[in-house]
Write a structure and sequence with these properties.
13 helices; globular; EC 1.1.1.210; 5-alpha-androstane-3-beta,17-beta-diol dehydrogenase (NADP+) activity; SDR_fam; 3-beta-hydroxysteroid 3-dehydrogenase (NADP+) activity
């Protein structure tokens, strides 16, 4: 029986590298690239089919930063597939990152340089904004949209005598200190990316506590330091030109500098080969690359309280109800406005006659 695998954010970077590795591993799987930009998704699909002739690769338009887009995409998925084996939640954003240049150069020539690059702690802040749903954009894209997607796809994920997997692409930048259970959207902070990634770690734990009995298993992955479009957007290209030789040198002494999307997808691919019952529900699985270039996966315990994770899940459920209600009201207003315009147009036509 062919496996059904959906990957969000699959048109470039780690997502595309994962798709390439999955098709190499299993030529019979049915792969779905869930992307916001369909032109880039089509290009990614063509590239995959060039190297894997005959592969079954579907496209799905999905903007996880928009609840309406998530609901529409979920309906397409439910009409297209009768189950889901793997749901890789890889899409994410880090908008308008601001780098403390002074802290950067101070850390560059200190013994803390490896940790600085690996976690960006004390180095990065972001300027978040509200999206069309009235939610903080980073929270909505990195966490909430994926939460709603899981909820909508439960009938395909939770089936009798069938196990399914949800795999989150997290980050070493996911820090407990950046997250507040009283401000889950991080409206008052300056590190929305770190907050959202820690929240996704928590949500994974909550999903396991609630849904393992229904056959749904959730895992979290840290891809390490990978050079993707998101990473390159943090600093001007001239800075990367300057520091890349240093980073390749540092890689000899640390295993967290995976650097390439292929290496960063190591743990994501490794989880595809594991039985869910053998995995630690509270571990984050790290993609690592040795100084000699060997890729491997290592689990590390996450600093997460199960009860707080359950509180986050409950808060997300309540927020989902609010957002759905507002969406219904907005759509009703739009329909009423369209009827009003149609009536005006009809009246105008009658007067002309």
């Amino acid at each position: 029986m062919e496996k059904v695998v959906i990957v969000t954010g699959a048109n470039s970077g780690i997502g595309l590298a994962l798709c390439e590795r999955l098709l190499t591993e299993d030529t019979q799987l049915r792969l779905c690239l869930a992307c916001r930009n369909m032109q880039r998704a089509e290009a990614a699909r063509s590239a995959l089919l060039t190297s894997h002739t005959g592969a079954h690769v579907d496209l799905l338009q999905l903007d996880v930063g928009s609840v309406e887009s998530v609901l529409d995409a979920a309906e397409v998925v439910k009409s297209r597939y009768n189950r889901i084996d793997f749901l890789y939640l890889n899409a994410g954003i880090m908008p308008n990152p601001q780098v403390d240049i002074r802290a950067f150069f101070k850390g560059l020539f200190s013994r803390n340089v490896i940790n600085m690059f690996a976690t960006a702690e004390g180095l990065l802040t972001q300027q978040d904004r509200l999206n069309s749903d009235g939610l903080q954009e980073v929270f909505a894209t990195n966490l909430f949209g994926h939460f709603v997607l899981i909820r909508e796809l439960e009938p395909l994920l939770c089936q009798t005598a069938h196990t399914s997997r949800v795999v989150w692409t997290s980050s070493s930048n996911a820090r407990r200190s950046a997250f507040s259970i009283d401000d889950i959207q991080h409206r008052k902070g300056t590190e929305p990316y770190s907050s959202s990634k820690y929240a996704s770690d928590m949500l994974s734990v909550a999903l396991n506590r609630r849904m393992n009995g229904q056959g749904l298993f959730s895992s979290v992955v840290c891809p390490g330091l990978v050079m993707t479009n998101l990473t390159y957007g943090i600093l001007p290209s001239s800075f990367w030109t300057l520091i890349m030789p240093i980073m390749w040198l540092i890689r000899i002494f640390t295993n967290t500098f995976t650097l390439t999307p292929y290496n960063g997808a190591e743990a994501l691919h490794w989880l595809f080969l594991q039985k869910p019952e053998s995995l630690d529900p509270r571990a984050k699985y790290h993609s690592l690359t040795s100084g000699l270039g060997t890729n491997y996966t290592e689990p590390r315990k996450m600093d997460i309280d199960g009860e707080t994770a359950d509180v986050l899940f409950s808060k997300l459920l309540e927020l989902e109800k609010v957002v759905r209600r507002k969406l219904c009201e907005r759509n009703a207003d739009n329909e009423a406005h369209q009827r009003y315009l149609s009536e005006i147009e009809w009246t105008t036509e009658q007067r002309v006659k």
